[in-house]
Amino acid sequence: MAFSLSAEQERELGRILSRYPNKMAATIPVLHLCQAANENWVSDDVIQFVADKLEVGTAHVKGVVTFYTLFNQSKPGKHQVWVCRTLSCALRGAEGILHHCEKRLKIHAGETTADGKVTLRTAECLASCGSAPMMQVDKTYHENLTTERVDEILDRLIAD
Amino acid sequence: MLQKTTFLSHSYAKPDGHTLAAYESAGGYKNARKALGMSRDAVVDEVKKAKIRGRGGAGFDCGTKWTFMPKESKKPCYLVVNADEGEPGTFKDRTIMERNPHSVVEGCIIGCFGIGAHAAYIYVRDELHLSKERLWAAIEEARAKGYLGQKPFGLDYPVEVYVQTGAGAYICGEETALLNSLEGRRGEPRYKPPFPAQVGAFGCPTTVNNLETIAIVPTVIGMGGEAFCKLSTLAEFNDGGSRLFGVSGHVKTPGVFECSVGLTLRELIYDLGGGILGDKRLLAVIPGGSSCPVMLPEELVNVPGDPRFEPYNGKSVLDLPLGVETFRSVGGMLGTCCAIVLSEDADPVLALHNLMRFYRHESCGQCTPCREGCGWIERILDKIVEGRATLDELDQLHRIASDITGNTICAFGDGAAQPVLSFVKKFRKQFEDYVLTGGKSQTKKLVA
Q1: For the segment B281-299, what is each residue's pLDDT rounded down to a tens digit?
Q2: DSSP characters for A40-85?
Q3: Distance from CA of B355 to the nearest CA of A (A)
Q4: pLDDT at A1
């Protein structure tokens, strides 16, 4: 089924375009907008839609999608969890937090739970080094984590 | 010398510190109004006198960078603010965006005026949702008050400020990669020259400044460049003012602290950071983000023939004030002034392994030495950690890292090579121990 945006999302697209001297510059913000409107992933239909809207080739859009890690090329779980594992977090126990998440969700990093609720990922430095260990859940940072805190957060996601 | 300041952080503890009302009650936007009443040259002059070394890691003088912009330009000019904070260990810009976003907007107005631009793009990494939200809210508040738009403060100098978002790529913190990303492309760095001041965003003259650099500009205009510069004890090293310092890893109270330039690593770790977790011994410190060479407390300053170094020669590098020139002179790098601290509990071999996974993951893949080299280094480190490597392979690490250095389009390659070269040199015994005995005498853990 072809991808399209709601009237409000189309207005947002117009606001984005107004910020740049050309349409191509809007590629990344428009991809974010469309990804959010497409269950958090960029399908071939989305790529075609963005290419048409911005009057650029599909190869350009696909090139951008594959370069940046935050554009999902397949459908993720309802909630996305990123555990930061770069040095400052690793020094404060990031590996333990990640293993705890894996055990609790019964999946490995990079996988989605069978019920499609949670995708667990690792992340490289999320600029939260002073409050390590930390993880990002959808748009929210959870910092100074303990395994008890992680349990509370994951319980809420699983129940949602 | 530990001298706390509050130019940026005065609002940090206030719950409404990010609002226009709080910012203005502390004197906010007075300085942008003042700057727009000065001549463009006079504004640039004040910034030059302030000797603000770029806060993003490269340490280039901000005022000098502004003078590279054309006086007359047929094309539009742009100010681009780099808030793609992602250097491991660095978490200072985020505090400004979340808790003092108006300082950034005011800095953008002054910056635009100083370089002859009418539009500023603040490029924020996508993960920082609260930062983006706070910046947009600040822009809207400032616009509603008439501080942005066609006639800021009723004066005839149009300024627009926009927030642009990335999508998860460390390399976009490199200024030319950032420009490509801003233009809607893959974030692959560009060849220089041409430099951004000639051909930057959308083919137009552009200045790219770090977010903290821009946020401190209103303070400079307010107190005058010279007075700001003198806050620093390193003014004779052309390193002026005050800045944010961060400390993370094995310290008791990690965080971001605003202080005059001239702070030492010892003060950052023991006074501000509260000392090492469990009062253990300090093993090593990476002074300013992971791309800086790692330093050991037993390393001594030895810069003969320069009278400015006389007070420090023979002392530990921990007692050398943190400055761009001071650290360059001792074979180190200041970077972003956000230190990662390793106690004696940390295994340096695992620390390098962790960092090189990061660099392999974040190499954009454009240049062969970096793309292949980072992967190769990580694979050898995999073998070392697993106790399957040979001494030949350990030596190979040095060769591969050396071959990346200077052979790539951007500085990422050098940034990836520095940790390898410094860790392997300074912890040779520990690396050899992994090769010869499987790491029997090492802690084999990173947590304290």
Answers
A1: 999 999 999 999 999 999 9
A2: T---HHHHHHHHHHHT--HHHHHHHHHHSTTS-SS---SEEEEEE-
A3: 6
A4: 62
Contact A70 B167 (CB under 8 A): yes
Residues A58 and A127 in one domain: no
Query: What crossing angle do the helices spanning B348-362 and B368-385 adopt, rounded to 10°?
Result: 150
User: Hunting for tokens 């590996």 — which residue is that?
Assistant: A95
Q: Is B136 on the interface with A (CB under 8 A)?
A: no
Residue of B nearest to A35 (CA): B167
Domains of chain B (ranges, CATH numbers)? 9-229 (3.40.50.11540), 242-343 (3.10.20.600), 348-437 (1.20.1440.230)
Shared domain for A30 and A83, answered yes or no, is no
Structural domains counted in chain A: 2
Residues in chain B closer than 8 A to A123 (CB atoms): 127
Q: Which residues contact B232 (CB under 8 A, 6 or more apart)?
A: B51, B239, B240, B241, B242, B260, B261, B262
CA distance B24 to chain A (A): 27
| Angstroms from A30 CA to nearest CA on chain B | 10
Q: Which residues, in sequence order, are CB contacts of B314 under 8 Å at separation 6+?
A: B300, B301, B302
* Residue ranges making up the domain that contains A38: 7-67
Do A94 and A136 fall into the same domain?
yes
Across B185-214, average pLDDT: 98
CB B290 within 8 A of CB B355: yes
Query: Residue B206 phi/psi, 5° resolution?
Result: -145, 140
Banded model confidence at residue A85, pLDDT cuts 50, 70, 90: very high
Q: Report chain A residues whose CB lies below 8 A from the CB of B93.
A: 127
State the pLDDT confidence band at B259, using cuts at 50, 70 and 90.
Answer: very high
Reduced to 3 states (helix: H, G, I; strand: E, B; else coil), residue A127 is coil
State the pLDDT at residue B135: 98
Residue from A53, A60, A62 nearest A10 by CA? A53
ipTM > 0.90, yes or no: yes
- The domain spanning residue A132 has which CATH number? 3.40.30.10
Tell me, yes or no, if the pTM score tops 0.90.
yes
- Of the candidates A31, A32, A93, the beta carbon closest to that of B447 is on A93
- Note whether A91 contacts B447, CB cutoff 8 Å: yes
Helix (H/G/I), strand (E/B), else coil: B278 = helix
Q: Is B255 on the interface with A (CB under 8 A)?
A: yes
